[in-house]
Design goal:
By secondary structure, this protein is an alpha/beta fold. The protein contains twelve helices and twelve strands. Strands 2-1-3-4-5-11 form a six-stranded parallel β-sheet, sandwiched between helices. The radius of gyration is 24 Å and the shape is elongated. The relative contact order is 0.11.
Length: 339
């Protein structure tokens, strides 16, 4: 027989309301009372009746997360940390991938809305001006937060990195190291790629450096095929009559591909070509496999996940907000052997 809150209350000699507050981590309860209730509910195997809760309060206690690629370490880590924080508050979490496809993303959003999720978190693949994809979310009255990627023209809560600052920080570092022919492998079409390129471009201009058009190479994927794209882009740069002596890569996945191309060409990193990535994937132990430790820009995944999950919980609880949240986290340079 399923354990109910009234069973826990009777067992501990407290009210059902007290048990409810403890399980939801709400209200003013002593830490000893809260811990006692949580401990006993775990011992008894209590599971909340989500269907009943949905019928009574109009909520499903389910939050949907849509990310571009579950295989990408950055998005996987971010989703994991957000899910952990939300589960600690009693919410179920469903995670899906859009595979960098706007149509798939719209389908997943529609599926989540049909399941009456309490909120959505989106690292969106929608292009600039594609606000129609979010119209139904707003019509349904479901709160949502954009993370990592901004959609120009869409008025929405956003938690992410200061991508222009990332481009500035990476390029400034290469200039300070004495490099003069600085190339960039970029990911066009998404806000992260656009703004990192703007930071790179502005920094070169400020230092009166010139960069040939051929020094900027676009890639079609920075996730699932990111390493291959980085490898091929680097080969194009190495084939130039005057090759770059340093490359700022859109992210670490692309940078690892670029690194392989440099080494395969019989060149040395950083004496022949220096490399900078973004994301600090080496901080995730399973990605610390590079033959040359990669200098990178850390985006603060833990902080990003904390701010995103906290904002979503506040929106679900209906706390009044005077304005839309737009948080840009400052990046941090992590210097390693590749520069």
């Amino acid at each position: 027989m399923a354990i109910r809150m009234k069973d826990i209350a009777a067992d501990l000699g407290v009210s059902v309301m007290t048990v409810s507050k403890a399980l939801r981590n709400e209200g003013h309860l002593s830490s000893s009372t809260r811990e006692r209730i949580l401990k006993r509910s775990k011992e008894l195997g209590y599971q909340p009746d989500l269907n009943a809760r949905s019928l009574v309060g109009g909520r499903s206690s389910l939050i949907g997360i849509v990310i571009p690629d579950l295989m990408h370490p950055f998005f996987a880590a971010m989703a994991k940390l957000i899910a952990r924080a939300l589960r600690a508050k009693g919410y179920g979490v469903a995670i899906c991938t859009s595979e960098e496809n706007a149509d798939i993303e719209r389908h997943e959003i529609a599926t989540f809305l049909s399941r009456r999720v309490d909120a959505l978190i989106l690292a969106s693949t929608q292009c600039s001006g594609a606000v129609e994809a979010f119209r139904r979310i707003e019509e349904e009255g479901v709160p949502y937060v954009l993370t990592d990627r901004i959609i120009p023209g869409l008025k929405a809560h956003f938690i992410g990195s200061d991508d222009r600052a990332i481009g500035i920080l990476a390029t400034e570092h290469l200039i300070e190291r004495g490099y003069h022919r600085i190339a960039h492998i970029r990911r066009p079409g998404i806000s992260t790629g656009v703004n990192r390129f703007r930071g790179y471009e502005a920094t070169l201009k400020r230092h009166r450096y010139t960069s040939p058009d051929k020094f900027v190479v676009d890639v079609e994927s920075s996730d699932g095929r990111g390493e291959q794209c980085g490898f091929e882009a680097m080969q194009r740069l190495l084939a130039l009559k005057t090759r770059p002596d340093a490359v700022f890569c859109f992210n670490d996945v692309i940078a690892y591909g670029a690194l392989k191309a440099v080494l395969d060409a019989g060149l040395r990193v950083p004496s022949d070509v220096a490399l900078v990535g973004v994301s600090n994937l080496a901080s995730l132990s399973f990605w610390d496999v590079s033959p040359v430790a990669l200098t990178t820009i850390d985006q603060g995944i833990s902080r990003l996940a904390d701010l995103t999950s906290n904002l979503v919980l506040e929106l679900i609880q209906g706390r009044p907000r005077a304005r839309l949240e737009r948080v840009l986290l400052p990046p941090t340079l992590v210097v390693r052997a590749s520069t």
